[in-house]
Amino acid sequence: xxxxxxxxxxxxxxxxxxxxxxxxxxxxxxxxxxxxxxxxxxxxxxxxxxxxxxxxxxxxxxxxxxxxxxxxxxxxxxxxxxxxxxxxxxxxxxxxxxxxxxxxxxxxxxxxxxxxxxxxxxxxxxxxxxxxxxxxxxxxxxxxxxxxxxxxxxxxx
Amino acid sequence: xxxxxxxxxxxxxxxxxxxxxxxxxxxxxxxxxxxxxxxxxxxxxxxxxxxxxxxxxxxxxxxxxxxxxxxxxxxxxxxxxxxxxxxxxxxxxxxxxxxxxxxxxxxxxxxxxxxxxxxxxxxxxxxxxxxxxxxxxxxxxxxxxxxxxxxxxxxxxxxxxxxxxxxxxxxxxxxxxxxxxxxxxxxxxxxxxxxxxxxxxxxxxxxxxxxxxxxxxxxxxxxxxxxxxxxxxxxxxxxxxxxxxxxxxxxxxxxxxxxxxxxxxxxxxxxxxxxxxxxxxxxxxxxxxxxxx
Amino acid sequence: xxxxxxxxxxxxxxxxxxxxxxxxxxxxxxxxxxxxxxxxxxxxxxxxxxxxxxxxxxxxxxxxxxxxxxxxxxxxxxxxxxxxxxxxxxxxxxxxxxxxxxxxxxxxxxxxxxxxxxxxxxxxxxxxxxxxxxxxxxxxxxxxxxxxxxxxxxxxxxxxxxxxxxxxxxxxxxxxxxxxxxxxxxxxxxxxxxxxxxxxxxxxxxxxxxxxxxxxxxxxxxxxxxxxxxxxxxxxxxxxxxxxxxxxxxxxxxxxxxxxxxxxxxxxxxxxxxxxxxxxxxxxxxxxxxxxxxxxxxxxxxxxxxxxxxxxxxxxxxxxxxxxxxxxxxxxxxxxxxxxxxxxxxxxxxxxxxxxxxxxxxxxxxxxxxxxxxxxxxxxxxxxxxxxxxxxxxxxxxxxxxxxxxxxxxxxxxxxxxxxxxxxxxxxxxxxxxxxxxxxxxxxxxxxxxxxxxxxxxxxxxxxxxxxxxxxxxxxxxxxxxxxxxxxxxxxxxxxxxxxxxxxxxxxxxxxxxxxxxxxxxxxxxxxxxxxxxxxxxxxxxxxxxxxxxxxxxxxxxxxxxxxxxxxxxxxxxxxxxxxxxxxxxxxxxxxxxxxxxxxxxxxxxxxxxxxxxxxxxxxxxxxxxxxxxxxxxxxxxxxxxxxxxxxxxxxxxxxxxxxxxxxxxxxxxxxxxxxxxxxxxxxxxxxxxxxxxxxxxxxxxxxxxxxxxxxxxxxxxxxxxxxxxxxxxxxx
Lengths: 157, 293, 733
Description:
By secondary structure, chain A is α+β, with helices and mostly antiparallel strands. Chain A has five helices and five strands. Chain B has helices at residues 9-18, 31-36, 72-79, 84-91, 96-101, 104-110, 118-123, 142-145, 216-225, 239-252, 263-292; strands spanning 2-4, 23-25, 44-47, 57-60, 63-67, 127-132, 136-141, 146-148, 151-152, 159-165, 172-177, 188-195, 200-206.
């Protein structure tokens, strides 16, 4: 089937989509956006987290056809051109990146958190990111990064 | 495989009637896992996310009707005051991403004994509204909905449209045990609802039997033992009542040993959760009574 | 100086924008997709396999089974070939999930679907399902699965010393099978051009694995080019070539197209190893004053019917404490499970649980502080060889971590600390890991734009090697780290040490340091011999690197930039070579890394689930190359092992032996919401006895001793001694 949707602000039409395909597959294999990672295919790891109409979801659990006419934003769409989003910059500066495979999903989820809750508490951060597994288990630095991004964003306001 | 996109409820019913093998998909949190793993390859996916009414809830005549497509995150955000037990349970479902997509309707459709919404639906006396093009609407009490492991009373040509429940008139609590602090499928879970107007107690047990179930003996025991008028003459719960209630809840379960926990631990944990939720609920109830007085 | 600074990762920008390319992100035109069908039974034979429906399914290019596979040229050597048997070689089934067919199709979805259409007729035999079922058959393997680790070690007469000791502890300890569970599932993409093979593989070492593939397919090593620049987590499972690595090139030969195999999440659990379950006994004998007289540590682990792979749980024991009489043994026993593999931290992590728990039991019996017991038995020199340590700051680790933790506030009485319904416990344990080194090569090119390029085949698995090695080159040449780039992850480059066994810093790092020094020397020689250089005629030993160029040590004004020097001489690049060769067996010093852990647990009285609310660790690893990457890696190692302490358990089905829960839904690893405060101290002392860089490995020592520290804290909280991991609530009822 044909699928029309918007991804990172760009209108996208892809053909020959299999009806059982996931949005993640479409993004990675058809839309040239392999930033979102395929790691568990059951919503358990969070590596494929993307915005769907402004709401973070696991792209592996969205049927491709459900994205018809909708807006998707992936890790590739967080930065403004060459300027990193504060959450991306904070992950770099705080040393919250290790192997990096969980990072794309974590960034989208953390980005959503500080959009909704500008100054999240530590328990709020940990709870919000509980669905993003990091097996390098860099959870301490990830926490630092979200705090840092929230502070910077609040300071910029 | 076909991908069906009805935009109205009648269209959805018609599609399901025509293709009973079509699998309804809402948040995808169960269905897509099975397709990703090639556990099944249905003849069609019936996408219900475009049927707008399913994502709405309303309150009329003192009863709530919650569309099958309302995600957990909205149950938490919009219905926390009216359905506190269900909202608590919703907070423990998967991850925020899952709660953004997953729905009570989907939980009912999957009918897993470990589904988090079942115990509060049982405790709150919810009724499930299902419908087929051929036979119209059926209203199924939650207690009659669960038939076996991942089997429900839903017929092949039926779709789940909504569930109905009364807004809480008394304290409601949900408790769940898992091996970590988030992202857990319940080792076992328990929901309690006090219904002071009818001097009735509701319970729901999850993940400790082939189906979610009520602890009827525990409900009856507690309803008779509770001093419902207590607020004015402050009387705590007698330790004997707490302990017996825990025992009765534990005895109602039929747990097994599995990868998530042992039967023995499940029985123990159910008794603890029963005592705990009762303590919380009774404290709330007494406080509310004191404030009224 | 860049070394030691907490600079940000050089590849972090790519990783936060989604631009980083992992193996599964590599795209090659005309790629076909292979899906691997695993056996449903754990022991027996494939009596018949009907592939006709699968072959007719849409998009299918080939279905390869043991009946129609091409031959492998040879079986490459273990242990880095994960299984000592090539896949699809015959009809025998040794474990559930063992690959019995490869389905190749145009798309992954088509291959997956076709795989469900393969009909297998199994002949079942009775499996050996569990370690317990096989315990009586334990044996010392004839051929050692891991090089240089003896299966048996003896000094003095431990049995006699034990019998004579006034105080004894003799207990059995068990560790569960664990899964590496990296977030990136392994992926291999292979294509042939004649007899040239190009292979993108999620591997922790292109140079260790390239020869294995070459041997299997009977082509010269230089005809195989293996790439892997980034790995999305390995923890040891990508330090082996698992069967899928050989099946991808095989399938590519059959369909004459590039073929990708990305294993499923389930196959990550069943097909890329695990840390084998162990049953260990520890017997300690001591004087009343806590001096250890005898130590016997006996370990048995499950291995597969294909291999004799040791989980070397007691291998470190002879080196840890000053015990005169000691016996250690490692045995294996065959179970119908897949072959295990080194997982952070192989052997030592499981072994430390037993040894450090037993020491806690001894301390309790003696009425002695557990930290004091360890101090009294401190090994001032290597107890095995008598050699001095290259560097050991363990006593300082004890002091600093104990102080930071507040160990002196601990009331030794179990069950004495409470907060409402919470029982509170403090525990501690030590950890030690033998430092390994391997030969490593690198070049560093100085370029005429004043930058430098490191060339070495290192794979970045997350430890931060790209960054720390860039810092090393930058310091060696007097450049900012930003002026250093890194070509890596390609077998055509000089051979790095593998990115496992904590060898990046010490071995590849030393090669980079040598290469940078060589490049600097070449630049100096060029300058002092160049009449047009302000440094002409100077003594080369007086010339130093400084801010992008060279100058005289004592006369800062006299010098020039690399850029000017090279351009004037019309030289594009000046190459320095680095070849690090470890000292080997006859080294003057014994080398190890050391650590200590302190843990606070809180346990609800009624639903006794253990929560780790606070953990303080201190490590002695020589010099810390980058405080930011090091801290993150160490905290990660601790949290990973907290998972082993409290939840991780790859449990076998008691009848079939297959893993019951090969999925992240039930193989629980820690999530963010589980974590309390994790504090890490590095007691630094540059260790130039170990290598030119002064750094020893961190990635593994940070994950040794945590389980025992938690178990000891649980005992302190509850009075209950849990000797079997993980410490789940049912064990505390």
